[in-house]
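Work Package 3 (structural annotation) set out to generate three-dimensional models for the target panel prioritized at the project kickoff. During this period the team completed the workflow that converts sequence records into discrete structure tokens, so that structures can be stored uniformly alongside our sequence database. As a representative example, we reproduce one entry of 159 residues exactly as it appears in the project archive.
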Amino acid sequence: MSEFDPTQHRMVPAQRWFEDFVLGERFVIPSRTQTSAVFAAFQTASGDTHPIHYDVEYCRTRGMPDLLAHGFQTLVHTAPGAGLFPYVVEESLVGFLEQSSKFLKPVYAGDTIYPALEVIELSPGKTTGVVTLRSTVHNQRRELVLEGMQKFLVRRRPS
């Protein structure tokens, strides 16, 4: 048995280049239930202390069933690093260029969300190309709660 090497303890899927992507291709990100721990972690990371996100009674007096997730708390689950996308572009990724989102429906404590990324546009350049991904988040009721876009600059396959 050989000695353990932590540098070899990695997910290494086949590397992809701009030309390898196809319109409609999806990158599913694991689902996640919005627990009180997720709310607390987001509060710590963001510094947001508004009671609509952290005081159940405050929410209930305003007609909400539970804590209301901050929009960015929902958005953060579309981070490509939560799925396979950054692993398949480790060698070809130049950078993350742009992101936009629309928050379509509320997400409450206890909701389970299902993020995904889908290739919707491929804009080739001479040595790189822009891969545009549609980001979506659905809830357990199959409602679209977030829709957005992310753009990445990816190298073309070396000659």
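The chain has five helices and six strands.
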